[in-house]
Design a protein that fits this description.
Number of helices: 2
Helix content: 10-25%
Number of strands: 36
Length: about 425
């Protein structure tokens, strides 16, 4: 399944060194046939061999690629990426080596690791369980439905049995599969998982939060809720006047940012959140609710380490793309030049890089707006674990190369999809 272009490197190296040695003998024989046997002669030969060896090793590392053969590829996370063969999923590492054979199913979802574990379905066992990045089964395949380990604990769902000995339940488990709380105080929901020590719960169609012991710490009285981020969670509440708005609560349930937003805001990152105004444009608030930037952005991507990417459309329908800091100050603006060319931003920053587009081709820029990876790909996903999925069309050969590139834009893993 995996082929390395450099797999015959050792044999090739020995052949080159053999030819090089005979070349030296021939060259020296024109002058002094005994010179080769002297210390100086051996020294020259040794240095020459070392130079050739280092050159070939460098050449091999620089141009070596791992070739893989899968139907579908996912993004890297926790040092591995999901790969699909037929209808089954496995995982490869950042070098393209298969670390988990494709023997698992995931329905309509792409499986993903979180905190070193992945909840996945085993057709052989007709149940779900958890594996680690080595493919070892950490929690046996005896579970009906799993949720990701975004924290050190998570929730699972088990239906009741026909005998009535047990009823349907949501349970809290740790990373070894130990059941900490068998009956958690929540109905089953795909949105129930632990983040920063708390998990959303759903009871009588209202949302609240429970802690790791299963204790309800924020009563389920909200119409909707989102996960905690930087100590705050966005919640939606309908007051006595029938007005439904969004605000933020802390982990004790105290309202920290009042219910003033008609539209759902984003989670916090770098001490900032984006809020959607009634003009259908985005603004920025800090963690006290203070408006940092009035709603003016047409499109936004989340902050990472103090930087975000946004776009602004003026009254003439002209769009300017910007990299901004936490105060909304532009670090770099991308406007159309006199020829109508423009760099467009298509993602937020991840691993310090964001996806940009020039002339309908994608590349990567840094937080200062410098092009780090040339815009030459027809498809490019955000960088993670120093790998990004990419597709590149060759105008000469009319062929498409797909796989994973590194931070220099070089294909290090090339996928040759099955023909059938």
């Amino acid at each position: 399944m995996i082929l390395r272009e450099s797999q015959n490197f050792s044999n090739n190296l020995l052949s080159v060194l053999f030819l090089e040695r005979n070349f030296l003998k021939f060259w020296l024989s024109a002058g002094d046939t005994e010179y080769l046997l002297t210390n100086q002669g051996r020294s020259i030969m040794g240095k020459f061999q070392l130079t050739i060896l280092l050159f070939l090793i460098s050449f091999s590392i620089l141009f070596s690629q791992t070739k893989i053969n899968f139907n579908q590829l996912g993004d890297f996370n926790d040092g591995v990426a999901p790969v699909k063969k037929g209808d089954l999923w496995g995982f490869i590492d950042v070098d393209g080596k298969v670390v988990v054979e494709p023997v698992y199913a995931a329905g309509f979802d792409v499986p993903v690791f979180a905190n070193g574990l992945c909840g996945i379905y085993s057709p052989k066992d007709d149940a779900r369980g958890y594996i680690n990045t080595k493919g070892e089964v950490v929690i046996p395949f005896t579970i009906y439905s799993t949720r990701p380990f975004y924290d050190t604990i998570t929730v699972i769902y088990q239906p009741g049995d026909a005998s009535g000995a047990s009823s349907a339940r949501v349970s809290i488990i740790d990373m070894k599969g130990n059941v900490l709380i068998e009956y958690a105080p929540t109905a089953y929901s795909y949105e129930t998982h632990f983040v920063d020590g708390l998990a959303r719960i759903l009871k009588d169609f209202k949302s609240g939060f429970m802690d790791k012991t299963g204790k309800i710490v924020i009563e389920p009285k909200y119409d909707d809720a989102r996960d905690f981020s930087e100590g705050l969670a966005a919640v939606q509440f309908t007051n006595s006047l029938g007005e439904t708005k969004w605000g933020y609560v802390d982990k004790e349930g105290n309202v920290k940012i009042d219910f003033m937003f008609q539209n759902e805001p984003t989670s916090f990152n770098s001490g900032r959140a984006f809020i959607l105004g009634t003009n259908n444009k985005w603004g920025i608030i800090d963690n006290t609710g203070k408006v940092i930037v009035e709603p003016k952005y047409q499109q936004i991507f989340p902050y990472e380490n103090g930087f975000a990417t946004v776009s602004i459309m003026d009254e003439k329908w002209q769009t300017t793309y910007e990299i901004i800091d936490v105060n909304g100050k532009p670090v770099k603006k991308f406007e159309k030049d006199k020829k109508g060319n423009q760099t467009q931003l298509h993602s937020g920053f991840k691993n310090g890089l964001a996806v940009a587009m020039q002339n309908y081709k994608y590349g990567l820029i840094d937080t200062k707006g410098n092009i780090i990876v040339k815009c030459e790909f027809r498809k490019l996903n955000p960088m993670n674990d120093d790998r990004a999925y990419a597709e590149k069309f060759d105008e000469k050969t009319k062929k498409v190369t797909s796989g994973y590139i590194d931070k220099k834009g070089k294909f290090v893993i090339v996928n040759e999809a099955p023909a059938w």
